[in-house]
TrEMBL record:
InterPro entries per record: Haem_d1_sf, Host-pathogen_enzymatic-act, WD40/YVTN_repeat-like_dom_sf
Identification of the protein by name: YncE family protein
Annotated signal sequence range: none
Stretches that traverse the bilayer: none
Length: 365
């Protein structure tokens, strides 16, 4: 598992952002040989950000490299700290002992959600700050940008992207336009034919089922913040011509983290539950939840909500689908849940990390 810790942003008791200077972020490489006792095997000083969906990191299917999207920096202007957009993808060699940063490349403004193809030879990144998606070629630890396609303007805020299993298409969420777009991929080129599907308000994350039959979007509901109202996960039928939204599943207040189990029978979404809101707000909760969804073909139903830590962001299933990890940003740890069939239960165990887990992804092995 790769974890991105952001040490530049927290919130005060009034729910207002508090910035800190850059320089203390880290990326963790975590060994899960014993899934209930994770072991940090590398702690790399690599900048990353919570400003974006918690899919700003990715691991290749063979476990050889990890990518980190560095979306937002913090700089000092006079006596004031301010956020500025960055444009870097960092490449980590996971086969090195210890794992190490090998290179960084420039992509579009505010690179956010990342995904790596099932073959492991390509990656996509949503450049939120300029309304584009970039295609990256992967050859060992050599990662190069081969194409970029515009999906609109920066105002659309493309936030996250997910390949279909065959690598020929991808889904891209337009956060501020409340849509998910379909793009085509062929011969190292991207094509956007203006196929946009209406999600719920503020879609922030997207995942495609291993079957390739459906995709899910986590529709945040309030521009990245809780507001006390329920929100939804939209279901996209990818086998229809053209693809279309076929269902919406009601979830809690502020879904962000989203993952589908490698077994294809479950999905999980992390619910913010007002964790970074003003503590006087009626919808503030010191603990968030993770909502478990059952997938049966194209049918998606809500099974249960499980309490986790404060401001849950990333969610990850292990490659065998037997465990689920939920990163609690403000508690600086992960909740460890056990999966048996479609039954998910909290183990009561927490995995402490040296920072605020803003993003996390699992390898395929």
């Amino acid at each position: 598992m790769v974890v991105g810790n952001d040490e530049k942003l927290v919130w005060d008791d009034q729910g207002k952002p508090v910035l800190s200077p850059a320089g203390r972020d880290s990326v963790l490489i975590v060994d899960l040989a014993d899934p209930e006792m994770p072991n940090i095997i590398a702690n790399l000083p690599i900048k990353n950000s919570i400003v974006g969906p918690p899919a700003n990191v990715a691991i290749s299917p063979d476990g050889a490299i990890a990518l980190v999207a560095d979306s937002v920096d913090v700089t000092k202007e006079g006596e004031t700290l301010k956020q500025v957009l960055d444009n870097k993808i960092h490449v980590i060699d996971l086969n090195a002992t210890p794992s190490r940063l090998v290179t960084s490349l420039t992509v579009g403004k505010q690179p956010s959600g990342l995904d790596i193809s099932a073959k492991g030879d390509q990656a996509l990144v949503a450049n939120r700050g300029d309304g584009t998606v970039s295609l990256l070629s992967i050859r060992g630890t050599q990662v190069t940008m081969t194409d970029t396609v515009a999906l609109g303007s920066p105002a659309d805020q493309v936030a996250a992207v997910a390949f279909t299993p065959d690598g020929r298409r991808a889904l891209v969420v337009k956060f501020a336009s409340h849509k998910v777009s379909v793009i085509e991929i062929q011969d190292g080129k991207l094509a956007y034919n203006k196929l946009d599907l209406p999600t719920g308000p503020w879609p922030y994350n997207v995942a495609v089922a291993p079957s390739g039959q459906i995709a899910l979007t986590a529709d945040n509901g309030n521009a990245g913040a809780s507001d006390g109202s329920v929100d939804m996960v939209s279901v996209v039928d990818l086998e229809a011509t053209p693809p279309r939204i076929v269902d919406r599943v009601v979830v809690g207040d502020g879904p962000e983290g989203l993952a589908i189990s490698p077994t294809g029978n479950l999905a999980a979404t992390a619910i913010l539950s007002g964790g970074n809101s003003a503590k006087t707000a009626y919808f503030y909760n010191p603990a968030g939840t993770v909502t478990i969804l059952k997938i049966d073909g194209k049918q998606v139903v809500r099974l249960k909500d499980i309490e986790v830590g404060s401001l849950p962001e990333p969610v990850c299933f292990t490659p065998d689908g037997r465990y689920l990890y939920v990163g609690n940003y403000l508690d600086q740890d992960f909740s460890i849940l056990k999966v048996e069939g479609t039954e998910v239960t909290a183990t009561g165990k927490r995995f402490k990390v040296p920072g605020h887990p803003a993003s996390a992804r699992m390898s395929a092995r």
